[in-house]
Structure formats: structure tokens, C-alpha cells
User: Fold this.
Amino acid sequence: PESFPNAYAAGGTLEATVSITGGTATWSATSNEDWLFIDSINSGTGKIVISYTSTTEERTGSITVQGVGTTPLFKTVSVTQAGDTPTLTVTPDTPQNVSEAGGKLDFFVQITGGTVQWTVQPNDDWLTIENVNNENGTFSAICAPNATDQEQTGSLTVWAAGASPAFKTVLVIQAAGSPGDAILSVTPTTK
Assistant:
């Protein structure tokens, strides 16, 4: 073929066949990209084995097959490689239990197979987010005391546009409070 439109993101090998009709001629093949390699050429069978490296971004490259005394003098074979979709992981991702007094929960965000930015937001007013560090993939959720006599369920969502999945939501379950009892809590604030 004169093109390979669906090369795998993980890398691999491809095979092309060169044929000369209406006479005999010699030919050679060269890569035009630093991620495409000519592994072998068999001029007897006309086979070219091409290998390519993995990528997280879609890309297109080519090899050139050049004949001596042929018309045309050269043909270009294009290779289009799909990009790998980054994967979003949040740890822990199971429902987290907190006492009625509230507290702090620590989380770890990991993006594998690519580079995308992530953000986090609470989905309930009794949860706040602190200490977000995109570099090392950490953040904390601060849970306010539960002043009601009902268990409450809240959540926070980590968003990573371009990743799969694009977001992860983690549930936070807080024990029922005792409205008649005073609950002391200290929530650090940064300025």
C-alpha cells in the first residue's frame, strides 16, 4: 500500500511490497521520520519491513522508496499513527467515610499514557478542596462537621479533559451528627 492510515499507538511493524513492472531496476527505501525505521529490505521479494515507536499524540510520517531509472523516480508511503488516550485514575476511588466531626481526606491523581491537566471541585457546600498539587498529583478534601441528625452523602469530581474517562467522582459519606451536642473542629485556612 501507499499509505498505512491506522498504525497502532503502542508501536509495531508494517510491511510494504515494492514492485517494478515493464523492466528491471534497483530501488532503496529511507525513513523521513525519527520514529519510523526501515528494519529490512528484500529486493528479491520486494518486501520492506517498517517499525515505529509508541506515541501519545496522533502523527503522520513517511518513508520514501526511490528507484533508479524508474518512472516515477520515487514513491512516498505515508504512515498515520493514532494517539494513545491518557487514562485518569483517582486513588482512593471508593466511597470515603468521615465522622460527624468532619476531617481531612487525601487523594492521589494519576494520568497515564499522556499529559493532560486536571482540576478538582467539590459538589457539596460542606466539602472544600485544599492543597492541590498538579505536579505530584495530590489534593485534600476538607469535610465540615455534620450539624444534622442525618447521615449525609456528598461528592467531589476530578476533571481531566482529553483523558479517558474525562472525569471521576468520589463519594464522601459523613456520619449523622447530634444537633444538641456542640462539635468542635478546627479547619486550617491559608492566606
Q: What stands out?
A: The chain has no helices and 15 strands. The mean pLDDT is 90. Residues 28 and 66 are 5 Å apart (CA to CA).
